Amino acid sequence: MSISKRHIIILSSILVLLSIPFAAMQFSSEVNWSLFDFLVAGGLLLALGFSIDFAARKAKSFNNKIIAIVAIVILFLLVWAELAVGVFGTALAGS
What we know:
This protein is mainly α and 95 residues long.
């Protein structure tokens, strides 16, 4: 299985995004991520990136692509918000 240019762009974008909190940890004590936090964020971003890529390649019409991508982003934001602050009070938030 070869790695395409799209996959390299997705993976490098994830590394750039994860480098932001890593750099912030070097300059501020307010950002305190553990290895687990980086792994979870990386997994979420990986799922987001490859899900959007899959939807963009497989959807037939432009409208279906937009609907699928918007649904994927909304789902990502809901999971992210739940993990970050426990918006819905599920066990995922640790509450």
